[in-house]
Amino acid sequence: MMDRIVNGINVSKVYNGVAVVKDIDFWVKKNQFLTILGPSGCGKTTTLRMIAGFEQPTAGHIFFEGLDITNIPPYKRAINTVFQKYALFPHLNIYENIAFGLRIKKLNEKEIEKRVARMLELVNLKGFEKRKVHSLSGGQQQRIAIARALVNEPKVLLLDEPLGALDLKLRKEMQIELKNMQRELGITFIYVTHDQEEALTMSDKIIIMNQGEIQQTGSPIDIYNEPENAFVADFIGESNIFDGTMPSDCRVLFANREFECVDSGFQTNESVDVVIRPEDVTLSEPEAGVLTGEVTSVVFKGVHYEMLIQEGPRTWMVHNTLMAPEGAMVGLSVLPNDIHIMHKEG
């Protein structure tokens, strides 16, 4: 418990009678990069705003280094926020934008100069001190917003979809830069996004939310390889999800065939969701596959081909570096470790 810098217990938020965050528990360790991930309207930004103090929980408590901060105003929290809209001051130059919070704290000019210089070097914008905000690109403005937040030396930095306004190439570059900044400074980052790739690329830990509830918490590898339900499997990467039943432990029946798997603890003949990642499906000659299907679509994705294969009433998505042409008959096989079994939701 002592290494948890932020801890939420039974946190809920209700707007006009509608629960947008529903009795969730969450925590993040010191110096960890936590991402809250989910679709629009799932409650992730509301959760971030409650951590920041911009929203009050309807129920529950938020703790910071073991102290209850639920009713403490934002300016008294050792937490800073970077928003998607950077909210830079257009009438101030870059130096004064970064120095703004330090002047509010009434630090002496020498200390301000030292801290601003360090931040400009950290975000690779040394020499931009006298530039105006409007003269910067979107990526540069984003760096200044981060520098302005970090110069106050917060223990936790909250980031609400800060890369959303950037183009794809710059977004990928900034993902790496943000992670490097976080490691170098040793500051806890709590990052909100709906972008699965961002979450997988940067995070030490991911919380996946849907409809105000936490669906799963874990490392990027655990969440990708061992999703706990069909929503998580479908939201994190592409997935084939089929209806199945469990005749016994480590045996699953779907596609009119019984397969070996590694999951147990289900009731006999329990209805389940069977999840198989597209990259885990092996293609072969029809006679060598466990199942047989016809290729109905082929799309080149750069590093692999994405193929849709019709097998009976089921459509399989398959990712492979080798292409089978449309109309070809192929065999489909999958290893026991790559068949993930989920309880049916609801």
UniProtKB/TrEMBL annotation:
<feature type="domain" description="ABC transporter">
    <location>
        <begin position="6"/>
        <end position="236"/>
    </location>
</feature>
<dbReference type="Pfam" id="PF08402">
    <property type="entry name" value="TOBE_2"/>
</dbReference>
<dbReference type="GO" id="GO:0005524">
    <property type="term" value="F:ATP binding"/>
</dbReference>
<keyword id="KW-0472">Membrane</keyword>
<dbReference type="InterPro" id="IPR003593">
    <property type="entry name" value="AAA+_ATPase"/>
</dbReference>
<dbReference type="InterPro" id="IPR013611">
    <property type="entry name" value="Transp-assoc_OB_typ2"/>
</dbReference>
<keyword id="KW-0547">Nucleotide-binding</keyword>
<keyword id="KW-0813">Transport</keyword>
<dbReference type="InterPro" id="IPR027417">
    <property type="entry name" value="P-loop_NTPase"/>
</dbReference>
<comment type="function">
    <text>Part of the ABC transporter complex PotABCD involved in spermidine/putrescine import. Responsible for energy coupling to the transport system.</text>
</comment>
<dbReference type="InterPro" id="IPR005893">
    <property type="entry name" value="PotA-like"/>
</dbReference>
<keyword id="KW-0067">ATP-binding</keyword>
<dbReference type="InterPro" id="IPR050093">
    <property type="entry name" value="ABC_SmlMolc_Importer"/>
</dbReference>
<comment type="subunit">
    <text>The complex is composed of two ATP-binding proteins (PotA), two transmembrane proteins (PotB and PotC) and a solute-binding protein (PotD).</text>
</comment>
<dbReference type="InterPro" id="IPR017871">
    <property type="entry name" value="ABC_transporter-like_CS"/>
</dbReference>
<dbReference type="Pfam" id="PF00005">
    <property type="entry name" value="ABC_tran"/>
</dbReference>
<keyword id="KW-1003">Cell membrane</keyword>
<dbReference type="InterPro" id="IPR017879">
    <property type="entry name" value="PotA_ATP-bd"/>
</dbReference>
<protein>
    <recommendedName>
        <fullName>Spermidine/putrescine import ATP-binding protein PotA</fullName>
        <ecNumber>7.6.2.11</ecNumber>
    </recommendedName>
</protein>
<comment type="similarity">
    <text>Belongs to the ABC transporter superfamily. Spermidine/putrescine importer (TC 3.A.1.11.1) family.</text>
</comment>
<dbReference type="InterPro" id="IPR003439">
    <property type="entry name" value="ABC_transporter-like_ATP-bd"/>
</dbReference>
<dbReference type="InterPro" id="IPR008995">
    <property type="entry name" value="Mo/tungstate-bd_C_term_dom"/>
</dbReference>
<keyword id="KW-1278">Translocase</keyword>
